[in-house]
Amino acid sequence: MLPLPPQAVTTDYHDHPRHDFDIDGHGFIIAEPSRPATGRPWLWRAEFFGAFDCVDVVMLGRGWHIVHCPSAAGLFGSPRSVNEWDYCYQFLTGVFGLHERFVAEGFSRGGLLTCNFAARFPDRIAAIYNDAPVLDIRSWPGGKAAGRFGPGDAGCWQQCLACYGLTEHSARVFCGNPIDRAAELASHGLPIIHVVGDKDVTVPVEENSNLFEQRHRAAGGDMQVIHKPDCDHHPHSLEDPTPVVDFLLDAWRAASRGRRA
Asked: What b/e readout covers 211-241, taking b as 16+ CB neighbours within 10 angstroms?
């Protein structure tokens, strides 16, 4: 059992206990497996806990903890959100005893946080699983990427600029997006898998995963991308999550032995 703080509220998540609590203003959601797997592996979902969660449910059933930190959500992968994950990581590994490496899971805008955190702390990452990920804030929420394939979201764009401390002008030359860090992530040898919809209008694959993959491979990296030819931004995930689950389990086994898959 996890050493939960007294203010924790426990509810049900797919027949497993879900614990919600704050520690000094930092939010945690932890879904706890009935029998934790050896090494106490875990998957950290950046955004939208519980949505399109077939991979999470399978991993939970295999003894993985599933974690979400609401206090880092909605910050568009900005340095503030990376700092928040860093703070929460200390509790998750130190107080709660989860493994030092985890799977970072980024759905949609969550891809900004998974990649930016991995770029700063590569030794904490067992693998990255991104699903229809945002990898350039100018694409979404900006709608201002070079290809101009996506419409963006004006309200979220203003929030995003504020999170990063950017202006309309400085955002045009901003180099802190995951697409700018693809080569860096390749140099760390992190296992990466993406699931994308080729007809994604909201987060166009041309401006995000395709560009990231090109730069990642050009730098000598290897990643797996699963394309859904007729899919828009929703629904996320796969009808059969087995390919993603198998990829993550292989990456975890390698990471837990101190090597890369």
From this structure: bbbebbeeeebebebeebeebebeebbbeeb
d(CA 169, CA 66): 39
**What are the domain boundaries of the chain?**
9-256
9-256: CATH topology: Rossmann fold (3.40.50)
User: What CA–CA distance (Å, rounded) separates 82 from 184?
Assistant: 17
Contacts of 235 (CB under 8 A, 6+ apart): 52
Chain position carrying tokens 């991104």:
130
What percent of the residues of the chain are helix, what percent strand, and what percent coil, each to the nearest 5? 35, 20, 45
261 residues of the chain, pLDDT tens digit each:
788 888 999 999 999 999 999 999 999 999 999 999 999 999 999 999 999 999 999 999 999 999 999 999 999 999 999 999 999 999 999 999 999 999 999 999 999 999 999 999 999 999 999 999 999 999 999 998 876 678 899 999 999 999 999 999 999 999 999 999 999 999 999 999 999 999 999 999 999 999 999 999 999 999 999 999 999 999 999 999 999 999 999 999 998 887 554
